[in-house]
Amino acid sequence: MKRINFDAAVDLLDELMAEHLPKEYRDLSRQIIALHLNEGALAMPRVTPTEAERAILAMRDGASVDEIINVISMEDSKTREGMFRVLVRTHLNRTGINNVSMGYKEKTLSPRILNFSDTIDIEKPICEISNQVKFLEDWATFASQHFAHADPAVAYDERGRDTLVRILHDLPDDGLAQFVNCRSGKKLRNHVDGDLGWCRIILGIFTGLRFLQEEQWSCFKTTQEPNLNANEINRLIKDCSHRVVQYGHALAGSFYADLGSTRFVKDDTHVRACMMAIDSSLTSVEDRVNNLIICSDASGVAPRIMDKLFYTACSGDLPLLGLKLEHPRVAKATFIGRLAGCCD
Q1: Hey, which of 29, 212, 223, 250 has its CA 20 to 30 A from 258?
Q2: Do residues 100 and 161 both lie within one domain?
Q3: 104 or 119: which carries more pLDDT confidence?
């Protein structure tokens, strides 16, 4: 079996970034790669433009990667609060709820939702009806307080406010649970004649919190298991997508990946393209993920770091600095085409 030499693949990425980064950043390509492939920078980022500017200035001043990481923000997903934020932000990254998150440049950081979700008492068992009522009451009050707010990213419109009020007023004796099985939010929408996007995010956050509580907040710890393999990863993703409304396979995998574990990898489009570029016989999810783990261990790097290398090269996205490669498709095609040459 061919095994990717991590250092050779990083050299290839450096070569491509020096060509495809915006011109003013090309001299920083190696530092930018080191930042994005650092184990301290794996959790979901929440970097502000000001922090990104500070990080770039620190690079030009010769700061170490650890020093640069200290000036940018990421979700503290080892904590319960951070884990819940990653779950909520992952919901905001899905399709079909644009009216819920619109008005902010980064939809996963939508203040309309996060300003409220950060106030939820996540220690109260959400399966209890009284806590579901409190959850809906607090959200309906928040929506009324921010109705037609001057800041469009914070403001609630009639669709959001009225849907929350209707759900609260028409909540059955058994709470939200009966609306979960249809998996789409349509049953709840039909019950209250509300907005589908808002029904989706409400059920998503409710079932997501219930999932985290039922798992006793063990998700991050589970992804750090040293013997994590493709079968176990697939089991975690399938279980999460089944229990959290509106989490398909891709979103459930993204949730676990964005917790920032060094061991968790998933078979996304970038992993699939890169692993098959070095060995076209890797046609199954299990083979690709397990071989990625083997290649990583052989190179002495964490599997998630190899995964991030593939993501960076194939997406052209550099979220810790708010940058993108200028010709990401060209860079991706070149990286994949030459990756086999980086194998031992």
Answers
A1: 29
A2: yes
A3: 119
